[in-house]
Amino acid sequence: MPPPAGSQVSRVPAQRTPPEELAPPAVAPAPRQPRRRLRTVLTVVAGVVAVLCLTGGVVGYFVYDRATTLDRSAPDVVVDNYLRAYLVDRNDARASLFTCESSTELNELYRLREDLAAREVRFSTTMSVVWGMLQVDRNGDRAEVRVDLTISAQVDGIRQSDRQSWTFTTRLGEDWRVCSAVPG
User: What is the DSSP letter of 18?
Assistant: First the structure.
């Protein structure tokens, strides 16, 4: 019911609490600031690790490529690589990468290797082949390479060796290749 007319109550404005005196509204706690320092350190470490991995991969690729690339740059180099592949490693597939196409003039060296294998079986030993300096006599796109092969083994506790002189004929196409091998 409204107050009677002329009453003092109706002329008095309604009382309200001033805003300064009101209790502040409940404030949610401020969100935690992310640890920027930790994030920066982790970012730098991740960047350094990525650069190191990338650099290691590139260096590894070039080292592998250089180690596995065939060197047929000179007559003496190709003969040395051929002898290592054919007589030491006894790897026909790799040795064929150093020979002329359809070269049939390597039969003497084939016989030598077969003889070495037969002696290994007969005497239960391992035959080793080493060589010294290779002497090159180059004439245009052909070269003769002379080398002394030293074949040795230990049989019944006694070290035995044999020295044989060989002449290899090489030819330059796109690169140097071994075309023939003859003893003497």
Answer: -
CB 170 within 8 A of CB 143: yes
Question: What is the tens place of the pLDDT at every residue in 8-58?
Answer: 555 556 667 666 776 666 777 777 766 688 888 888 889 999 989 988 888
Q: Cα Rg for the chain, rounded, in angstroms?
A: 45
Token duo for residue 30:
């401020």
Show the tokens assigned to 179. Answer: 């075309």
Burial of 147 (0-12, 13-18, 19+ CB in 10 A): buried
- 131-145: per-residue pLDDT in tens? 999 999 999 999 999
Q: In degrees rounded to 5, what are phi and psi of residue 43?
A: -65, -45
